[in-house]
Amino acid sequence: MAQYDVIIIGSGPGGYVSAIRCAQLGLKTACVEGRETLGGTCLNVGCIPSKALLHASHMLHEAEHNFAKMGLKGKSPSVDWKQMLAYKDDVIGQNTKGIEFLFKKNKVDWLKGWGSIPEAGKVKVGDVVHEAKNIIIATGSESSSLPGVEVDEKVVVTSTGALELGKVPKKMVVIGAGVIGLELGSVYSRLGSEVTVVEFLDAITPGMDGEVQKTFQRMLKKQGLKFVMGAAVQSVEAMKTKAKVHYKLRKNDTDTTLDADVVLVATGRKPYTDGLGLEGLGVTLSKRGQIETDDHWQTSVKGIYAIGDAIDGPMLAHKAEDEGMACAEVLAGKHGHVNYGVIPGVIYTHPEVSNVGATEESLKEQGRKYKVGKFSFMGNGRAKAVFAGDGFVKILADAETDRILGAHIIGPAAGDLIHEICVAMEFGASAQDLALTCHAHPTYSEAVREAALACGDGAIHA
Ligand code: FAD
Ligand code: NAI
Questions:
Q1: Are residues 258 and 282 in the same domain?
Q2: Does residue 148 belong to any structural domain of this protein?
Q3: What is the tally of structural domains in the chain?
Q4: Strands (E), 300-348
Q5: Is 406 in the pocket of ligand 1 (CB under 6 A)?
Q6: Which of 13, 77, 79, 191 has the most neighbouring CB atoms within 10 Å?
Q7: Which residue has its alpha carbon closest to ligand 1 atom 37?
Q8: Does 232 share its domain with 355?
Q9: How far is the CA of 316 from the centre of ligand 1 (A)?
């Protein structure tokens, strides 16, 4: 049994990043992981595999819809599903092994097994109790289901089952028009499934900019996804290879049933803290099961910290990573900090959708005066060249000071473009600061500059 400065429970983006940073800062560090591979939800059954399938299916979509327009003629590729899954698994393997390599390089011990905390300062893995000055809980989250819906990961699946279906289903019903539903719904729609998304609310991707929501839904419909909005799913009846989804339309209480070969339940995720023994320790949880922490990620018990999906805030890998790094800094006696006002969100559909900071809706609610600079990708030469003119960049800036308050992008490379605005916001920049910065031509980034110009005297190519 070794004595550690820090033991981190969970090796997802929160846990593994924190472990590496702790070790870099000179702390003797171990990370407990019960899965067979490191990397958590994100690398094993989340961000990485979903992006691999999004990439492969997007390539097919391009071949089917855009190749001929560019003079690339010939039959579109057919789908070898087993090979596509093997490609996805290979990508997962490369990433999870990469973390193993980084642990060795940074001298982080991987304690293999499921951990619990018998008391502050102690972590039990299997039969061995390890001692640590500090413990960080980074145990992440799990899919949440609905009453009346039993998941078997074959016919009724969460995202985990959806990443390894036996075959591409003819009909898929997705419950929930959030990030998972739309990303994985897009994958199967591109691969030939008839996808119907059933959403409780009247708009997709709750919390996002209203204009983006409408544009995004229109584009997805054009790609073949069907939507039933304002529908409360009552139950799912699963047979051996088929299922029936019963829902009630909220506006008139009409009951309807949809048939499906596969039902994807994508109605959110909840913190995972099972088996840690938190009740006995007196660690306070919120009503939603999140571990409560102070500004330095310390829980109600001294020496026990928590980060990532297990605590409050957006369930995003990069938010978990930032908390992991900042918590490590705190434990090393430095000043760890996360700017929660500047955490970007990205949906990796085609086109991509991204956002950071305030929405118009939130600014109106606060009664804050703001101006909008908007630029359509139709005015961007590079976007038009790749059939990606549909979409826009929208920057929100303070009406008086011109300080950037938020941004919303739907269009090509939106997930990368948003970071220019994140950096600007970190530095308290004005829209004019962005507008005065030279942007290379022809790039998609020019659309960001044009939106910034539109906050002032006007965009050039609008
Ligand atoms: P996790 O990644 O959940 O890791 C927690 C780890 O702790 C797990 O490996 C678990 O086995 C381990 N663990 C739990 N309890 C114990 C215990 N007692 N002992 C030992 N080990 C334990 N986010 C993005 O930012 N971008 C994306 O593109 C994206 N795509 C996603 C796609 C899908 C399909 C899903 C499901 C999620 C996606 N997310 C994405 C969300 C992202 O995966 C999470 O926000 C992120 O993984 C949270 O990191 P974490 O470190 O808090 O926890
Ligand atoms: P979500 O919270 O994004 O969306 C859930 C959707 O289900 C909502 O639109 C909600 O209104 C709807 N819903 C809830 N109950 C319903 C019901 N009874 N009937 C019909 N619809 C119902 O959750 P999701 O998509 O499961 O994702 C979970 C988390 O994973 C998110 O917090 C997200 O941050 C993270 N994630 C991030 C990704 C990214 O960053 N690209 C990709 C995938 C997941």
A1: no
A2: no
A3: 3
A4: 304-306, 345-347
A5: no
A6: 13
A7: 46
A8: no
A9: 8
Nearest CA to ligand 1 atom 33: 46
Domain membership flag for residue 461 = no
The string of pLDDT tens digits covering residues 233-289 is 999 999 989 999 999 999 999 999 999 999 999 999 999 999 999 999 999 999 999
Residue among 41, 42, 269 whose CB has most ligand 2 atoms within 8 A, to mutate? 269
**Residue ranges around ligand 2 (CB below 6 Å):** 146, 175-181, 183, 198-201, 206, 232-233, 266-269, 314-316, 346-348
C-alpha–C-alpha distance, residues 60 and 145, integer Å: 31
Residue 388 has pLDDT above 80, yes or no: yes
Q: How far apart are CA 426 and CA 377, in angstroms?
A: 25
348 CA → ligand 2 middle, Å: 14
Its sign, for the CA torsion 130, 322, 282, 332, is: positive
CA 111 – ligand 1 centroid, Å: 18
User: From the CA of 125, which ligand is nearest?
Assistant: 1
119-170: per-residue pLDDT in tens? 999 999 999 999 999 999 999 999 998 998 999 999 999 999 999 999 999 9
Q: Residue 5 pLDDT more than 70?
A: yes
Q: Which residues of 272-311 are buried (b: 16+ CB within 10 A; e: fewer)?
A: bbeebebeebebebeeeebbebeeebbbebeebbbbbbbb
Last residue of a domain, one of 279, 303, 338: 338
Q: Ligand 1, from 42, 123, 205: best to mutate by most atoms within 8 Å of Cβ?
A: 42
Residue where a domain terminates, one of 251, 267, 283: 267
Give the span between the Cα atoms of 66 and 61, in whole angstroms.
8
* 399 closest CA partner among 358, 438, 343, 460: 358
Q: Distance, CA 203 to ligand 1 centroid (Å)?
A: 26
* pLDDT tens digits for range 11-58: 999 999 999 999 999 999 999 999 999 999 999 999 999 999 999 999
Same domain, yes or no, for 372 and 391? yes
In a domain, 69, yes or no: yes
Q: Tell me if 242 sits within 8 A of 259, measured CB to CB.
A: yes
284 shares its domain with 235? no
Are 280 and 362 within one domain?
Answer: no
Shortest-distance atom of ligand 1 to CA 307: 52
Q: What is the CATH number of the domain that holds 178?
A: 3.50.50.60
Widest distance between CA atoms in the chain: 68
Query: What is the residue range of 402's domain?
Result: 342-454
Percentage of residues in the chain having pLDDT higher than 90: 99
Same-domain pairing of 136 and 281: yes
Distance (Å, whole) CA 460 – CA 97: 48
The answer to whether residues 399 and 358 belong to one domain is: yes
237 labeled part of a ligand binding site: no
